[in-house]
Specification:
mainly beta, 8-stranded antiparallel beta barrel, 1 helix, 8 strands, about 10% helix, about 60% strand, elongated
């Protein structure tokens, strides 16, 4: 009996020490952004993602989003896009499955498509590439379900510029959502 308990305890220790514990997940949320450089551009999207934690420290996800973009001058545009993000767990103690909180760094690249109204001055359809980085704070609600808050920064060329300026567009972003872990 003692030997069986010892084997069971060793199995639990090996499970917690194993750095290669993959975990698939899906998430969904609401994402907003606001220009940080005074250009009065705001965006609100629905965002879904699917990804994999390769181990207890490094993960990746693919995201898709769709929503609306409000530009200066009273214009708005339909927007949709897709991206790839790298996730890095910044808290070594999250390797413990009993932990209720996780903080991760996020860095990625995103492709965005914008469809402007017919009366917009320069362009009707524009594709852009953006870089993004931020932090994700996640709280376990149940064994499989998490709530997360993800503030970040997005950098990209100005896709709507009508006055010839070519300075980069910088936006603060915030996503609120839930994650389901398989």
């Amino acid at each position: 009996m003692a030997a069986a308990g010892s084997i069971s305890a060793q199995g639990d220790v090996k499970k917690n020490m194993n750095p290669v514990t993959t975990r698939w997940f899906v998430s969904g949320g609401v994402n907003g952004s606001a220009a940080l450089n005074g250009s009065a551009v705001n965006e609100l999207n629905a965002k879904i993602a699917g990804g994999l934690w390769f181990n207890k420290i490094i993960g990746a996800r693919v995201t898709v989003n769709a929503g609306n973009n409000w530009l200066k001058g009273g214009y708005n545009a339909f927007t949709m896009g897709a991206g790839v993000d790298l996730l890095a767990n910044l808290m070594k103690h999250y390797a413990d499955e009993d932990s209720r909180f996780r903080l991760s760094g996020v860095v990625g690249i995103h492709f965005g498509y914008y469809s402007f109204p017919d009366d917009f001055p320069n362009q009707k359809h524009v594709g852009t590439v953006a870089g993004n980085f931020g932090l994700q704070a996640a709280w376990k609600l149940t064994e499989k379900l998490e709530f997360y808050v993800e503030p970040g920064v997005k950098l990209m060329p100005k896709y709507w510029e009508t006055d010839g300026e070519d300075d980069p567009f910088t936006a603060g972003t915030l996503t609120l959502g839930v994650t389901y872990n398989f």
